Amino acid sequence: MSSKVPPIILNNGVEMPQLGFGVWQVPDDEAEQAVGTALEAGYRSIDTAAIYGNEEGTGRAIAASGLPREDIFVTTKLWNSDQGYDSTLRAFDASLEKLGLDHLDLYLIHWPLPSRGTYIDTYKALEKLHADGRVRAIGVSNFLPEHLRRLVSETSVVPAVNQIELHPHLQQHASRELHAEQGIATEAWSPLGQGKGLLEVPAIVAIAQKHDRTPAQVVLRWHVQLGNVVIPKSVTPSRIKENIEVFDFSLDDEDLAAISALNEDRRLGPDPATFDMS
Ligand code: NAD
Questions:
Q1: N or C, which end of the chain has less CB nearby within 10 Å?
Q2: Domain architecture of the chain: domains with CATH
Q3: What's the pLDDT score for residue 2?
């Protein structure tokens, strides 16, 4: 594990770096360079997904890094069109092959698709992959509290992680509370609010000036102090480096309160209750 990023301990004892590198919207031919830059900067966790189309580039960067496999935590996600027991097993094999790996650290169901009613069977396939030792931890993404409650009552392995949209404008109190009760780690996607607007909010800019940090670092530090796992994305080397330098300063109670006051329950992405893209 990188010395820069402390781990959190998942509910099955597996360690996951609290900060990782997200690669949504990074084209496959740019992923190798971006992930390579992140690994050089000290990131040891990479978040990709089958639908991102960059598992191959991500895998090439991991291989080229020369780092021991056990030092890198790799997450990918099962796409919607592959939900269902047998299709999930096949999709997992395809993702592993693209990544060039023999096992995965974390496999997530990308979206719940509640109107299809397939996430229980899909999750049972994840349980099998976990039991077979092919993935060290399993979890979900974009699950609302009602989906999580049903999943936990109808399956055996409590998800290690729920990866959800979370940033100062969408603080997800109900989900975070349920995760804490169930021992599920909260992983924040779009932790920087996709860089739009949020990083110019006066309260955040003022806190950044006070600590001689950047707004992005302040927002990432807020997540870290809340206990969230974060996976900021950038393809700009200076920002990739900047985004990991958040473990050598602290926000005080006043800063945390000022950021918590920014909640607007405003999503940038789709609503998981209705999102159903194949
Ligand atoms: P993000 O909040 O990480 O924002 C990324 C954008 O912010 C960059 O493209 C850039 O424009 C800007 N940025 C990054 N660093 C900056 C800096 N230091 N200073 C100024 N601007 C900066 O958004 P994201 O990519 O949507 O989310 C992060 C990761 O979360 C994704 O790459 C992906 O891995 C994951 N994700 C998952 C889901 C899901 O459904 N599970 C959905 C979206 C994203």
A1: C
A2: 7-196+219-249 (3.20.20.100)
A3: 44
